[in-house]
Design brief:
The chain is of the alpha+beta class. It contains seven helices and eleven strands. The strands form three sheets. A seven-stranded mixed β-sheet has the order 5-6-7-8-9-11-10, sandwiched between helices.
Length: 245
């Protein structure tokens, strides 16, 4: 059996393997720059809408999906979808602020609206989103236009990566077009494909946010009762088994 390649060290000090599993996630900006500077071949993965190393371990097995036909169908849907998920980039700062500097967008977010969302704060939020240790944050593009964000957050003290919270926001100019359910459904698909240990996804919705509740239900999530910490919050959940049924 061929041994795994030796771990390399990125400029930030993080460990990096060029043969890491394909569905461990696409490369971030530091990893891409490191590969290009060190002659490590890259390949664009259309299913995940991002870059991976050419010699990555393809960990997509038939046991993970329901046969070759379903794998082909899912890849075809991803290729045909007008949506793409990618990392926020520094050059996205103007559109990021234009979308997020809106008190209406923050109405049901757990954080307080930074009125106004100045350039320094927006830049800091983009930088925070790039840290992939406990979350996976993506800008959402539709037909090449950035319309919002989707986020997968893992419990900070958990190493199992078997459960995660999904959340999203969409700029107000794009509301009322049916994007919410499409984005949640596609991001859910991406989460279960990218994180093979993931067994359970949940979302937290305020009881007054009927629109987001409908979005989740249309995407296949079920109401799982109130939050244990705040009765005004509802939990919506979907398991891998339910998603693949």
């Amino acid at each position: 059996m061929q041994s795994r390649k030796q771990a390399l060290s990125l400029p930030s000090g993080r460990s990096f393997r060029s043969d890491k599993p394909r569905f461990a996630g696409t490369l971030d900006r530091e990893e891409i720059d490191f590969c290009r500077e060190n002659g490590i071949a890259l390949a664009f993965d259309p299913l995940q809408q991002g870059w991976v190393t050419q010699d990555c371990e393809d960990d997509l097995r038939l046991s993970h999906l329901r046969g070759t036909a379903e794998r082909t169908a899912r890849e075809a849907r991803a290729a045909a979808s007008p949506y793409a998920f990618r990392r926020w980039r520094p050059e996205d700062l103007p559109v990021y602020r234009a979308l997020l500097d809106d008190p209406e967008v923050w109405t049901y977010m757990p954080e307080t609206y930074p009125d106004p969302l100045d350039e320094e704060t927006a830049r800091a939020l983009i930088e925070i989103s790039a840290a992939q240790g406990h979350h996976d944050v993506c800008a959402v593009e539709r037909a090449g236009e950035v319309v919002g964000q989707a986020r997968l957050a893992f419990p900070e003290k958990s190493r199992d990566r078997d459960t995660a919270e999904i959340s999203y926001w969409i700029g107000r100019a794009h509301w009322g077009q049916g994007m919410g359910s499409e984005i949640v459904a596609l991001f859910t698909e991406r989460a279960f494909l990218n994180w093979r240990s993931l067994r359970d996804l949940y979302a937290v919705v305020h009881e007054d946010n009927a629109a987001s509740a409908r979005v989740l239900e249309k995407a296949g999530y079920r109401h799982d009762g109130p939050s244990r910490t705040d009765p005004a919050l509802r939990i919506f959940r979907i398991t891998r088994a339910e998603h693949e049924a």
